[in-house]
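ping. complex inputs:
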Amino acid sequence: MKLTSLLLTLCFSLTVFAQDYHFGKVSKEELQEKFNPLDSSASATYLYKYRKSFYEYVEPSGFRLVTEVHERIKIYNQEGFDYATKTNRLSTSGGSDEEIRNLKAYTYHLVNGKVEETKLSKDGIFKTELSKYTNEYKFTMPDIKPGCIVEYKYRVNSPFIYNVDQFVFQYDIPVKKIQARFEAPEYFTFKESTRGYLSITPKKSSQADKIKLTSRTSIGRSYSEDLNFKKNITEFDLNNVPALKDEPYVNNINNYKSSVKYELSYTKYPDAPIKSYTTSWSDVVNTIYDNSNFGPELNKKGYFEEEIDALISTVSDPIQRTTLIFNYVKNKVKWNGYYGYGTNDGVKKAYKEQVGNVAEINLMLTAMLQHAGLRAYPVLVSTRQHGVPLFPTLEGYNYVVSYVKINDGGMLLDGTSRFSRPNVLPFRTLNWQGRVIAEAGGSTLIDLYPKQTSQNSVFFMASLSENGDLSGGYRSIKKSHKALSFRERYIDVDRDDFIARLENNYGGLEISDYNVKNELDLSKPIVESYKFVKESQADIIGDKMYFSPLFFLKTTDNPFKLSKREFPVDFGYPSKMNSKIVVKIPEGYRIESLPESGGLELPDDLGKFIYQVSGTGNTIQVSVLHEVNSAIINPAYYEALKSYFAQMIEKENEQIVLSRI
Amino acid sequence: MIIKRILNTLFLLVTLFSFSQQNLYTSFSIPDNLKQNANAVVRDDATTIILQSSQSMLVTEKRIVTVLNKEGNDAVNAYMHYDDNVNVKTLEVLVYDNFGKVIKKIKEKDFRDVSAVDGGTLYSDSRVKYLEYTPIKYPYTIEFNSEYETNNTAFINSFFPVTEYFLSVENSSYTLSFPEELVIRKKEKNIEGYKISKDLTSTKIHYSIKNVSGIKPEDYSPNFSDIVPKVMFASKQFSLKGVNSEVENWNEFGTWMYHDLIKSTHDLSEGTIIKIQELVKNEPDNIAKAKKIYQYVQDKVRYISVQVGIGGWQPFNASEVDRLGYGDCKGLTNYTMALLNAVGIESNYSVVFAGDSQRSLEKDFAAMQGNHVILNIPNNDEDIWLECTSQKLPFGFIGDFTDDRDVLVITPEGGKIQHTKKYIPEESLQTIKGICDISNDGSIKAMVNVNSKGIQYDNKYWLETETERDLDVYYKRRWKYINNMSINSMSIENDKNTIELIENINFQAVNYTKKVGERMLVNLNVLNRNTHIPDRYRSRKLPLKINRGFKDVDEVEINLPPDYNIESLPKGQSLETDFGSYTTEISVIDNSKIKYKRTFIINDGEFPKEDYAAFRTFYKEVSKLDNAKVALIKK
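pong. complex structure:
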């Protein structure tokens, strides 16, 4: 019996179904499926996902962008119920709106062997005005139970012809079949950019098409004529796309999501000149530069001249000038939290009101530096959250910082962060490469990941008492990004709260004489020091004491828990931790044994760990160095990295044994 | 018209008067005691509410706040919620630098106007206008002026001067005036020890408070609403979305809700009623029937938050939930109630403050309160409570979302306050049984069985539906003090009948023990080490409150490595405190095996602030004893 059913199942799965992807043709087999055979952990699966974007000619306004969507989703269990709600964000601007039309949606169930359907009615559709520029169109499907299938189709009409949404082929649930099609008349030329790990091979073709143009003669008679043209078609057809899952220390999972983006390069209508959008990086740079909220804003100088002239009149050294102007901008204009490489209210208003977005602050900063005779340039940046721009696109960037060339070197500056320093940019901007915009419109790349190692040096002196309690002093010196992140956490926070949290992080440490130096003097490293007491830091068994000499400073948790890794590990910046520890042992005890000194290395000089311990009389000295030399580590090294951390934790845990004299 | 002019003049006089007293628009004039524990200081808040009739209310507020640092920006609270029933008359802000000079004026049109939908809500018809302001320099002062009129008088703003932690209040006043024929009720909370003055007449109520220093949040302390002063108000005669009502106590309130908001929504179709009767016809008693219906609801409908209708207070019709297969808490509770009703089982719609802080409805003050709805089934001494928005919770299990608090139970005869289920420590029991093998090389192999009940069940039942990949990470985190762990097998069983979660996990880890020369140190508590120590306070201000207790019982057999003998064995320990107890028993079997038994109990309760240090010490001791090690020596 069992064997037969097994055989049956086998035959079953060998049979290739001719799936019917027509709307409404949901099969019993699809409804019967209990889990996705290729990923049993999936709570839902796109059985079919279809999208077609094309241009439609409507008189009298001209071309509009139409996107047709058809999705069929299998929901296996309650965890997948979120996929029964679909949310669309629609842009609206100056009286032009994107709109959703022709929505048809059904939920399907298998009831006593028959497919039953429930239609989405009006009361399941919700429209909300989110803000001046965004409307939200949501619908939620009726009658959702584990095992059901939802299917819907609709079209989005958009007046924003240049704004073609990214074609995405990978989601947080698996996709069984995905088809997409993009059609554009020959008048539109697009740049196509692909990202992700899937191999995507678009099929290209072209077709003849025509539109009917209606005109009116001078005496009021209307006549129509056909305009023939060619349209370019790109088609995608993918099967069984696995789900994409997030991992720790991934810069931004969307960087690895397979997708294709179309960006309008130029339009060329019959009998009209070319209107250029973007085609190459220099076009991107030119377009951004020519935009009224970039280049012209950068070139405005009048509003600050007087103050800047006065500020730098007595200083001629370029580094000093840079520092003066950088600090001046940081003190004068506060960041309102908005991103963008283009200004919003303009530099002048930002200067006057002392509030601005990223572009207002950093373009102003660049302009001031230029005014002071420095070779300063704006640098286009894509923040970590925004992803990595691989191909020339206007939307590839969402941020701008400033770069000053001094002699052979240079300094990257970001005036939006209170604690940022030259070449120590806020963490959000540490994302691959930025694009330096030169005077002549050319551009070059600059690495945004810091080269300089961020250091934390710890000095730790303590004495261990007979009952295993530890007391002593801690002092640390933090530089670069370590200092930046400390300042972000420390300043403006209730001091007692901060200390309480620190005590808690170290599992009930008791801190006194807590002191921080240079917290507001950014040119100096942060010096943090305190006295501490921590109970029972040694195991006392018989006449012996056992303890790990790093005490509460040791690493306890390996951040890398998954056994496999597909994406680079991104730490943001290279770092170095250096600890010097001196421990006085209690009277009446002697050192019986010490762990061996030793070290670990990551391949290709990516990092190292050195552990040295020595003891004389009643004093033990330990020195530990842990450095990661690269901001990014390739997934090929993941195994090595994971075991490096595991071995480091082990080494740090090794015990010193004292015995009673 | 004339009245309005007089009012305006009066207002002007008041304003001028306070102006001349001192300059409130700079931080220099803040008394020192108010600067401590404060990120912002309310300099002066004057709220005036004119209840013109039971159908119309005018609310005016002038609020001057000095913000001392970045963390204080939120305390400005310059926003206004509105919907079709609210007519916004004034909304403006003046920003002052620290010299008291106006540096910016922000008008209503410059406020951000957005839908008041939070992440969990699918749709809501209410909107909010809020101030978006980037400070140039701290301190700065904001004057916020607002005025609106509404025909909704079911909610009258409370006098609630201290709105958050780290906020001091220099002066705050509240005036409610009303026609003589309206009966106003009020309730004062936590006002002892504050400088409060009040003036009550037959047409006017006035409260003011002075000089309140900021409060700092502390771990294990009472709910914020049980610490800060508050005076609540309600009018006997009120109107909600055009419907007039009269309510004076919870009984009348319940009658009103039942008859005006709930009753009419029980409109199941004949077909559904027959289907449900058919479904339960073979069940022996009402509880079994109710259980079957609850399961039916859990299988059929899902939770979706939609806030529309009478102030978001009226449930969807039962027929609608039946048809759509979803609803919000009101709709789903009401639907379950209608189904139970169809088979003759009495149940009651119950209003509650949901959340793990166990906030109660005010027992002796009937007014619009609560933010969630659950279902009550009367059952002699121990009523059954149903959480109808969950498709996972077992029948009669409400967990920490609505446990142990006063709620309003609405019956056809009226409303009454009842207390929900409290999970005592013995009920929130976690039992661990484990067998651990230590090998000569120091590695460990463990077979673990964990059984969780009560609130401990609530903390873990969601594991049942986690994916294997996420569970793997979850267990490595639960036992994060074990380095190099690899999990060999995991199985999770959720027994909804007995309300137990049973986890079976096998794992191994190399170098679990610490090897030093001839010796090996083995931590005896492999599976349930306490690493939590409550925060330390240099001077504790708030009472100690433990919301929920629990009990952990662990029994673990540790098989020792064959090449080693026991050199020294820690003793069993026992700690007994008001907050809980801790006992370990350690015994050796056949020289090759150690039996480790541990019982850890935390009791719930409220204690004076002086006890906090002892409570913390108890946890610290437990952490320390959980680190006890046996020393082995090579044979």
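Residues 429-634 of chain B form a domain with the Jelly Rolls fold (CATH 2.60.120.1130).
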